[in-house]
Amino acid sequence: MMDKERLQKYIGTENLTVIEAMRKIDLNGKGILYIVDSDGRLSGSLTDGDIRRWLIKTGDLSETVEQMAFRNTKSLPITEIQNNVSFMKKEQIQSVPIIDEEHRIVDIRFNYEEAGECGEEKGVLDSIPVIIMAGGRGTRLYPYTKILPKPLIPIGDVPILERIMERFYRYGVKDFYLTVNYKKEMIKSYFADQKTPYFIHYAEEVEPLGTAGSIRLITDVFSTPVIVTNCDILIEENFGKVMEHHRKFGNDMTIISSLKNMIIPYGVLHTKERGIITSMDEKPQLSYFINTGVYVVNPEFFDWIPEGKVFHMTDLAEKMMCEGKCVGMYPISENSFLDMGEFEEMKKRENRINRDMLSEKLQKI
User: Fold this and answer.
1) DSSP state of 39
2) pLDDT tens digits for 80-116?
3) b/e burial code for range 299-326 (CB count within 10 A of at least 16 → b)
4) Which residues contact 325 (CB under 8 A, 6 or more apart)?
5) CA pair distance 179, 74, nearest whole angstrom
6) Does the pTM exceed 0.85?
7) Residue 46 and residue 167: Cα distance in Å, rounded?
8) Is residue 255 a contact partner of residue 317, using CB atoms and an 8 Å limit?
9) Which of 82, 90, 127, 229 has CA 20 to 30 A from 211's CA?
10) Radius of gyration over alpha carbons of the chain, in Å?
């Protein structure tokens, strides 16, 4: 049985806001919250998928989870707790709350055998090419990038770029297109020495062409949507679901967007005429969805990129929106987005890798 402190990681109240619920789901790492009413009784459940659908439909970050919780949540009485594994298999669910006679949650059981990392689905991207923009100078990581190109800076003992490709490969991606410039020979030399189970194709810039301009150097013709990503971004999300979303909503471009919470480190004053203060907020929090630098693009729009000119993916997105094309977003939580171009994010990722490795060792003991 879970102790009360651990149990609270997976339980939320109906008055939680979307942002608070996303943060709590991030922290528990299981992708779900069980929702209780004002009397502490189970009233529903909320997954990261439920939140995503709500945000795509409304864009409202301030609403409470009461409006979006799933109400027909499966549960087991404590007298049947021994049947939790067969119950989850029968109902095809990954977790089940255990409730007492008053419908209060006393334990939660998870199906550890079925749950995979970020719900990975092998083979769902086996026909999808991935373009990785790896030509930048990595000025945010100077002085490391004075010696190594940014794509080869290690996270743990594996370069950033190799981690990105390994992650996509687990979904079935076989073809990677690297647009390279700064210290490109080092990048090519490194991967020439590796026995990778996937193919790497290079598009070599002579002069910097921006995050989209270099795509015009690729001569292959694509017949499926293409994933385009920066070389310093790790997204911990199910890319099968991202591609499904792109197709389902008929998007011409889908931008993976991450929630970003920022705290103003001062008290904020609200005023009216004559400088009269009407209210004060102490260190308020602002929340926005930001562009992660990862895109799904229908290939015909690569022809919209001018040849031989500096042009960015954001320029392409704006051009498409101006022409009435469908540019949508796929929202993910703040904890699912890691920007390896920042020292602090690199440190965060290394710590997470170390924790995962320790956890695997403990499981084998």
Assistant:
1) T
2) 999 999 999 999 999 999 999 999 999 999 986 544 4
3) eebbeebeeeeebebebbbebbeeeeee
4) 252, 253, 301
5) 48
6) no
7) 27
8) yes
9) 127
10) 23
